[in-house]
Amino acid sequence: MNQTPFKIHIVFWLFMTLFVLDYHWYENSWHEAAAFSISEVVGYLILFYFSMCASNRWENKIWRLVLVNVLVILTYVGFLRLTGLEYYFYDHGGFRNLFSMTLNAILFTGLGVFFYFISRNQKIREHNLKLKAKNRQLQIHAIKSRIRPHFIFNSLNNLNALILKKDKDLSKFIDAFSNILRYSLDENEGKDIPLNRELSCIKSYFDLMQMQQPASTNLDFYVEGSPRGKSIQPFILLTLVENAFKHSNIQNSIDGFVNMHVSIGDVFETKIWNSFEGSISNRESGLSLIRQQLTNRYGQSYSFEVNEMGKQFVCTLRIFSSKINDK
Amino acid sequence: MIQCLIVDDEPLARNLLREYLTFFGEFEIMAECGSATEAAQSMMRGTVDVLFLDIDMPHLSGIELLREMKSMPLTVLCTAHSEFALEGYELDIVDYLLKPIGLPRFTKCISKISNRLGGSLDFAQNPQIESYTPFFVKSGYKKIKIIPGEIEYIEAMEKYIRIHMKKTKIMTLMSMTEILSHLNNNTFVRVHRSYIVNKNTIEAVEGNMLVIGDAMIPVSKANRYLIDQIVN
Fold first, then answer.
1. Single pTM value for the model
2. Based on the domain organization, do A269 and A201 belong to the same domain?
3. Residue A219, Cβ neighbours under 10 Å: how many?
4. How many structural domains compose chain A?
């Protein structure tokens, strides 16, 4: 009953009144017809809401519910018959009147029960969904409490203190590593996050990779335009970057490279290209997940192309800037 | 001298801040405390200008200490938890450092403190700061020393970069991202896919071109906002 908006109830009963009015107007003057139909509809209204309340009260005791409803219907019919109101509502007379009254009473009582159970089922379904979501949240919390992020970050900070004087590169390594770790552990429940944060994580990723390669390895990360005031679905760009590194040949070729250029203008454009050797056939399956994510979030407002050009693999993602602007 | 107080229950974390602070000559460490209660006592003994405060400590947390205090020195919260940031800023802190604390981030924090103190610190010229320290690049069989202050601009050429200095040019096999990691990002800006410029050497701005000596450096369309930042 609380599920359906109040307005729908009003509209329903207004419509009902008009419907009955139409029937009475056939033989009576309009004000008589109005009086009849309003009083008749009030009767239905009482039946309807009473059966709803009864369903709420005895929803698990079906027989008691049926009994109560039968009693109500009998009372209604008896009331109309004893007061003589039936002759205003129905013009058949005698047994035929009794039949019509009972039928209408059963209809509205039945409708009340029916709507009650429909809305109850919907409520249960929603409640179950919420429970499921909460359950998943609890699982994440359980995993996270086992990891204890602050313990890790405190330890890394102490490590930083220990090596500060000995190795500057290691200090940089810890910085980049913890930036990525923190970003990955942050739970944002799939909501958009500031573009700046995603880009800073990717920057750390490139830093980390650069430190593990000879200085001559060609890794380039370049952002053009200002990420301020923009938000994006998290981990999409990062996944593309991880893929590019995974499939590149920077480990075993001096000509290997991974480049990423981000351009923030009217269109947000990210281009990632890397060198590779061998086949890329198994790469498409990983990308289909990204496509799915992009479609879920951006609908038709993005384009994502993957091209193989000689020994290069190029990914280009474009999203309309209006889609990533902060509200 | 600026009087600092370091509060952290972990000794190594205190060491780190102490080491970092020695890079910036103007800071003097008045005391180091292992707990918030100790810190409260130290602050009664003398004036503290800057307070570096951990949050997660036994007995009394950093946030609780801040709430107790009547007058607050410039406070920097240093913590491994990211979730207290909002609460911290409500208490009007200067900066919120997430552990592990890297030197570049700490340098930024010092510049924030300096701004609060009226910009009296000239720390940027401190040669001890990593980003200003000279580094070596390979050119042919030689390793050549590069002093960041002498660089005018850097140009990308395929896999190589050319570093334009006041007197010479050096070609080396290095990526733009790699060279940028050796340079201070307050002074050096990548204005174009193929160009990094030293802000201090820009002589003029012509439309979307920067004039440095005889060279004209283009600025990408999306990076026009950088010109405003440079000019102002």
1. 0.69
2. yes
3. 23
4. 2
Shortest alpha-carbon distance between residue B102 and chain A (Å): 6
**What residues of chain A lie within 8 A of the CB of B159, using their CB?**
216, 218, 257
φ, ψ of residue B7 to 5 degrees: the values are -125, 115
The last residue of one of the domains, among A142, A172, A199, is: A142
**Rg for chain B, CA atoms, rounded:** 22
Q: Does B101 touch chain A (CB under 8 A)?
A: yes
Report yes or no on A271 lying in a domain. Answer: yes
Task: Show me where the domains of chain B are located.
Answer: 2-125, 134-231
Q: Is residue A25 part of a domain?
A: yes
> A92-96, A200-204, B84-88, B152-156 — which is least confidently predicted?
A92-96
**Domain match, A97 and A220 both:** no
Determine the pLDDT at residue B127: 43
Final residue of a structural domain among A107, A142, A177: A142
Please tell me if the domain spanning B2-125 has the same topology as the one spanning B134-231: no
pLDDT of residue A4: 63
Say if CB B41 and CB B7 are below 8 A apart. no
Beta bridge partners of B4: B29, B50
Residue among B132, B124, B172, B138 at smallest CA distance from B150: B132
**Structure ipTM over 0.95, yes or no:** no
> Which CATH number does B2-125 carry?
3.40.50.2300
CB–CB contact A175 B221 (8 Å): no
> For the domain B134-231, what is the CATH code?
2.40.50.1020
Q: Are strands A267-275 and B27-33 parallel, antiparallel or unpaired?
A: unpaired
User: Where in the sequence is the domain holding A67, given as residue range(s)?
Assistant: 6-142
- CB-based contact B178:A210 (threshold 8 Å): yes
Residues 6+ apart with CB under 8 A from B27: B1, B2, B4, B21, B50
Residue B211 has a pLDDT of: 93
pLDDT of B129 above 60: no
d(CA A12, CA A2): 15
Judge whether A267 lies within some domain. yes
Q: State the pairing for strand pair B135-139/B142-146.
A: antiparallel
The stretches in chain A having pLDDT less than 70 are 1-4, 144-145, 187-189, 279-285
Task: Compare CB distances from B220 to A156, A186, A224 and report the shortest one's residue.
Answer: A224
